[in-house]
Amino acid sequence: MPDRIADIWGGRTPFARGTAWPVRVDQKLAEGVSESEVERWVVSACTLCSNGCALDIAVKDGRMVGVRGRARDAVNHGRLGPKGLFGSWQGMQGGDRLTTPLIRGADGELVETDWDTAMGRIVEKSRALLEEKGPLSHGFYTSGQLFLEEYYALAIIGKAGIGTPHMDGNTRLCTATAAAALKESFGSDGQPGCYEDIDECDAIALYGHNVAETQTVLWARILDRLAGPDRPQLICVDPRETEVARLADVHLAIHPGTNLALMNGLVRELFEHDWIDHAYVDAHTVGVDELRAAVAPWDPESVAQVCGVAADDVRRAAEIIGTSERLLSTVLQGFYQASHATASSCQVNNLHLLRGLLGKPGCGILQMNGQPTAQNARETGADGDLPGFRNWENEQHVAELARLWGVEPAKIPHWAPPTHAMQIFRYAEQGSIGFLWVSATNPAVSMPESPRIRAILGRPELFLVVQDLYLTETAMLADVVLPAAGWGEKQGAFTNADRTVHLSDKAVEPPGQARSDLEIFLDYARRMDFRRDDGAPLLDWSSPEDGFRAWQECSRGKLCDYSGLSYEKLRAGGVRWPCNDEHPDGTARLYTDAVFRTGMDVAETYGHDLLTGASVPPDTYSAMRVDGRAILKPAGYTSPHEVPGEDYPLRFTTGRTAYQFHTRTRTARARQLDRAAPRAWVELAVPDASALGIREGDLVRVTSPRGELVVPARVGEVRPGTVFAPFHYGYWQGGKAGPGEQPTAANELTITEWDPVSKQPIFKVAAVRVEKVAGGSAPAPAPTTTASRPAEPDGVPVTVGGAEAEAEERLQTAGMARS
Amino acid sequence: MKLPVYLELLETSETALAASFRVVGRGHADDADIFHTCSTLAQQCDQHAEALAPVVERYGRAEAAEADRRFEAMAQARSGPLGLLRDLHDVFVLASLVEMTWTLVQQAAKALRDEELLSVVSSALAQTEVQLAWLRTRLKVAAPQTLVAAS
């Protein structure tokens, strides 16, 4: 059986354009458990990245003992990646799961307590603050990893129970720009394309999207097209020599922070060569003249100078984009977490609009998500939106919510956009938010400028509630810690990056007294006695399915229409929304008719200026008469705000490795994954390392104006002048919320700055200096199988998983297992 | 011709607006979006003043007695959430004056059929309108928390 740590993407199953991706069922069972011993297989999907691979959970003696990919599911055709195979179920089984609530005692230590006492403490504080300062004293910071029903409950509690605009998710860190760019171009959130566009395309352009590590099964699908008889052309925009870059026809290794200059150059080339579908542009878009004027200065030579790439490579990329019959574009954190995030991502949309390549097989845009259920936070309004892609500036939309929830429209905050995460933390820093409830996320490690975030979370004046699976760095700073049930221990639906909805059934009981996040939220609502105006309870749900039905009503008639779905239907396999009477089997692609959600009555936003984030007022938008056409939105390039200089001469960027997820809360509890990437490192390019006298494995100090990292160096293949660090490595394993002598969290260095439109923090553009601290005795603990591979492989042990990382791959057509 | 009076008003007011954006940005640097956006907008104001130079050259300077310098930059930023609201509000007033000044100069430029001046006005006025829109957006977001919940 293949070692799926050594072989991240599994065996190749090549296929040709327009044919079905072959089915290969990947399976992993616990040591000593054979397939015949499995008592039940429980339907679910993986929650360790945004791909949402469908799987069944193996259960034996009341424990999860493995997983198997679902053969018939459109998302993964049976495949699973290393995180799904090893991390999904083992990640729930760490010996240090939280099993009882904790409260901060008189001596300042967290002590075990019961649910009544913990919830009583929360409700007492909540009521006192509401009495004293009102709803604006309350903030909620949730996740990209809960289920749909849980987010929707939280949204109702925040908006109709308390009445605070201060609610956001860590989706702000990973996927806010995807939503923002879709809204600016098409009027509404909603992924235009789907994964079958990989099967149908002639060219794939990946913008800041290291799909080989962020969504390994999606990359396997691309690899199988690349290995097939009619290989699509591949364009990669990334400052690192990723697996994608290694196979690309054109690799644009641009300086971090210069995406918009490149994109303006690519758009300009389409105009220069008249690679424009004039009929489509005339009929279905507005703003072409403004766009042409905005990109005019960006000839390939100017792009080359600013971005640090060859002008001819810009031309070659533009030619592929301009002439391919079917083009698929995908975008992720290299764009979303960098300067001009929304503006750069909108330019990807513009390329497709100019060419009329949208809503047809192989012509997709995938503005990707980072986290597994980020899409649901966006849909249900737990992340700084209103539920159902409603527009906070549209009184009709707010009135619909008020009717659904049985409250007056005035109860629902809609005097300004819901507050974004960075602003919520600023209000907490200033003291106007005194109650912050964090669910299923770890801001002490994941938010930018960690020293500042830890100080905010640790403020004695801030009452901090944290609910999670484990005692994370954030939980260590809490006043009340609530033990949550997680994946496989509770029921709920969630939606992946290509709009596919899956059901995850409950396979086993949660440990100790742990409760599902939904139960916790419903309990809070009951104890707070939130009521509709007619006196009935605001949240009368008794099960996840009640929540799902309530959400179906909220989404009915909206773009994200779930009204045609049911738990029963989802048990048979994933379905893409919109799913309703008209489309009972779901919908593969949006905008097949080129009618966009930009009409005054349906638009989720009236748009923003991309440079400043200034809102377009409703009357101005109305006068634009967009009326269902897409908006070709331009923005001029300006230099990033933090650029290398004398004190900090190198560019700093952060990212993921294939083996870990987020702050490793689950992946580090799976031995196979943990051993593949156990500790932090930084990557330096060969010329930078030799100039600094640094060799593979040496301990180095990386310093920015915010803080420092002290970690081993991997001398690797990042673009010269740039330093890369993975962001997963915090301090919980040492039992501490923050660093000691050797800080390891990449966010010690990152800047507090965000995109003006999407408000997504800028994790990938900062300036640092590097110095050697001590010689190393071994190579850096970085994988050799990914973009982290060493420039000089001699003497660096290859990353393997051994026997415990072996997993079965069953090719369904051949009927044979790969051995 | 009194146009030079208004051209000089524009120069002094754009310079004052640039300086005010910088004062507010630096004074509220812990509000990261304020710091960065104010810095970007200050640069725009500098460019507006520079773009006027060739026009001022052609029309000449105003008589000393007619020159009007009542657009003054903010001397220093206030502190705290209320200070931010008051500072942005002050900048909004100054930016509104700038916007109306450009509008009036645009009217004169139309009457003079001065294409060069019209082109300078057109881009500067569009950017000033966005500056006002940003200030309005940010002020409206800040007001509830500042006036209701902040201490």
UniProtKB/TrEMBL annotation, chain A:
Ranges of Low complexity compositional bias? 774-790
Q: Say yes or no: keyword DNA damage present.
A: no
Q: Which residue windows are transmembrane per the record?
A: none
Keywords per UniProt: 4Fe-4S, Iron, Iron-sulfur, Metal-binding, Molybdenum, Nitrate assimilation, Oxidoreductase
| Top-level lineage group | Bacteria
List, for all copies, the residue spans of the domain called 4Fe-4S Mo/W bis-MGD-type.
39-95
Where does the UniProt annotation place the signal sequence?
Answer: none
Q: Which cofactor does it need?
A: [4Fe-4S] cluster; Mo-bis(molybdopterin guanine dinucleotide)
Q: Where is this region: Disordered?
A: 774-800
One Pfam family of this chain = Molybdop_Fe4S4
Answer yes or no on keyword Oxidoreductase: yes
Q: What SUPFAM superfamilies does the entry give?
A: ADC-like, Formate dehydrogenase/DMSO reductase, domains 1-3
**Which PROSITE patterns does this chain map to?**
4FE4S_MOW_BIS_MGD
Family statement drawn from the similarity comment of this UniProt entry: Belongs to the prokaryotic molybdopterin-containing oxidoreductase family. NasA/NapA/NarB subfamily.
| Stated name of the protein | Nitrate reductase
Organism encoding this protein: Gryllotalpicola daejeonensis
Organism phylogeny? Bacteria, Bacillati, Actinomycetota, Actinomycetes, Micrococcales
TrEMBL record, chain B:
The highest taxon in the source lineage is Bacteria
Name of this chain's protein: DUF892 family protein
